[in-house]
Design brief:
Number of helices: 5
Number of strands: 19
Oligomer: single chain
CATH architecture: 4-Layer Sandwich
Helix content: 10-25%
CATH topology: Metallo-beta-lactamase, Chain A
Order of helices and strands: EEEEEEHEHEEEHHEEEEEHEEEE
Strand content: 25-35%
Radius of gyration: 17 Å
CATH class: Alpha Beta
Shape: globular
Length: 266
Amino acid sequence: MQTYAAPLYEGTFSVGLDKKFIPMKRDGKPAKGSLRISIQPFLLNTPDKKILFDTGIGEFGEGTSTKTILNNLAEHGLNDFDITDIFCSHLHFDHLGGLTNRDHGYWELTFPDAKIWVSREDWHKVMSKGTYYDDEKTEFIHFIDARADIHFLSEHDQPYPELEVRKVGGHSEFHQAFFYRKGEHKYLMAGDVLPTKGHVNQKFAAKYDFDPKQSIRARQELAKMAYDEGMIILAYHSSETPMFRLTDYHENQGYTIESVTEYVSS
């Protein structure tokens, strides 16, 4: 059995202030005043675990469903019962919408046998609120709370010997980054703190971040770690380059980025 990471592309969307995800062409132009955002959960396929880093938007985009992520997994010979662990970088709906579906008219867990790993502080904060975005999503999050096999992570945790979790903050208050290290296999997934290759050398503050200055600090620290350790970065919102490594650094130009189109080794 080979160990590898793979993107599970769900689509590209035009997203405005109303937070509606409108499907568009991968290389298209978003609506005026909107952002072009691609969604790409990641599969980490190992001999003993089938891990997802985030689960996509699920039913919460215009015309989207969990069938996309299930079809993508089928291309790797996997089904919904094969997934052992799901690590959620943060609790925005476009990152955990795929946890459930209503294919039969009622809420069901998309990955019934999976452990769901979330920040303890983040989960408790969400559950303490009266509303999670809107009524529909509030039902969604309460169903997960009642039915899923949830496991809580602290600020710096190591749920498995090869998998480290760190709270980095920035994009959201309790945002997490995931580090997988086992032999030659080294991956970093940092959700919306390093969502595309364009963010690696980005130094400006983004208004969509909970703490823009912390996002900048976290990006710089994570990029240096990835460079020093030769880690492959898994970029959740990338349209064209979901997997890449940093191969060189120049003080004035920043990091040199090399796309990884396929990473499968025994």
